[in-house]
């Protein structure tokens, strides 16, 4: 499913219109940020990576073949950048440690939720984070991830189930 | 948990994002009321949903920062790929010796390419209007629109395969004016009442309608509270968060920013429904285009009647103007924001030398907006004592039917709104082998009259219980002044407030004259 508005903006951008790209940034920054956050897990890194992905999108816009699919394309750019970032940081355990350090700046409930979220496998975490950080449309998530809406439903359902179990476990631990 | 529960849980998950229709939501409610397991599942999901939403909410600031920084870097980077490369992360470089060897031809090539790109962008900028710098957000444009005292503009409307043009003006008090060429309509919605003036300059004739302030005081005050003035009415009409900047464009010698508004239907492809061109110097709109909702505006079915019903092999489409999918059906342009207009421009006082007729608000609305509109507003669905007005409406529509049927009254009153019957009569009367577009339009104008009563009847039939309506015209022929074809007595049965039943009976005769009586007719001949 394409997007006529995106296609027009991409075409204008290819003709050198920077304001058209600025509009694309406004429209897709939420989705790009959500993808980065779902993969790297820390807000500061997600902000930097999302920014980087959007700038790279501008540089590489000429390589975008399906001009009405800017959203899925820029999400892929963001995803790749974020995974590279994770690899460069050697192991995810250190990242989780960094998150634990941040836990003091938010409520216990959020801290538990954050830990539980990042214990989910990426293929379940990504649609769940996109759902809450982007526009809550399963169709849009399906387009972004290049999977069917049915698959999004399934992954969301599994993610919610796993998250529930993890949260129950955390709640039980807190009560002890 | 059974298979119903599995399906229901999938829907419950959908319901969390509010993507379900009301009917499906009601089904979930019913199921959860009966199934404790699904009810508990939904409660858990709602709790998690609420926590995740709270968790995601503060990230709006992060997203805003991402937007601002990315846009800043893109703007600073320049428009070309070679310039933009400056903001790419550093790449591993070739050894110095190889770089030296490669440098001379590459430098020359890059210089030529860069010069070509710069020239190309200068030309593009020149064509597009050479207005560099950020474009205004549409909300700012709208604010500027609201600051003017008066605005005058042209409206072009595509309807029934042809373009019509009128000039419209709006003023900060509740004044508006429509100039259709052969007639002018001025509307003043002041606090406590409405004044309407219709002018026919060629005939030096004016028709005026002024409501008694006490009649519509509340209605007008509510309108004033909702829409502060006529300029705001125009500005707020276009107010929409999803008006997006698309490109810069040169339009009639002006540098403009083009914005598009898309309909947002969750889960479906978005459709462009409006485009606006904003002058980058004044930051005010110079043109609006609205796209119709029909995918193909040419193939509209007008209650079953089609252009093809009037076409022959030779005549083809005649004067019918085709539109392509996505073409505008309404264009607003020639804007004069803050126009200086004479006080007479918005005046509802007839000019000197004009003959003046007074009319009711209902008649004025019918004259300006057509009979169909009048029927919707002043149709038979009323508890008020409007027996005469209702009889006149029926009489008028019977007259239209008779003009098509060879002066034979319909078998049933509902025939007036039955397209399977009316369309045959229209095609028989108007298909004459001339311009099919003109014939089609003529047929549609008559069709609209009857469609009005048809739609009205849909409502009227529902209120039959409290309005006495009797059609007894089957077999009657136009001209029989002794034969009653229709009679009614309205507004005297529950739930109408006036249950006295003291009002007169209204009767329509075979020559379409209307008479009243204190008693109902005993038979068709009285």
Descriptive account of the structure:
The complex is a heterodimer of chains A (176) and B (526). Chain A has one domain (4-175): RNA polymerase sigma factor, region 2, helix turn helix motif (Rna Polymerase Sigma Factor, Chain: A). Helix content of chain A is 78%, strand content 0%. Chain A has helices at residues 4-14, 18-40, 43-59, 70-88, 92-102, 108-117, 122-133, 138-145, 149-175. The N and C termini of chain A lie far apart (50 Å). Chain B folds into three domains: 3-58, no CATH class; 139-346, outer membrane lipoprotein receptor (LolB), chain A (Clam), CATH 2.50.20; 370-517, no CATH class. Chain B contains 14 helices and 16 strands. In chain B, strand 9 (271-279) and strand 10 (285-291) form a beta hairpin. In chain B, helix 1 crosses helix 2 and helix 2 (22-34) crosses helix 3. Classes of the chains: A mainly alpha (176), B alpha+beta (526). Chains A and B meet through helix 1, helix 2, helix 3, helix 6 and helix 7 of A and helix 1, helix 3, helix 4, helix 6 and strand 7 of B.
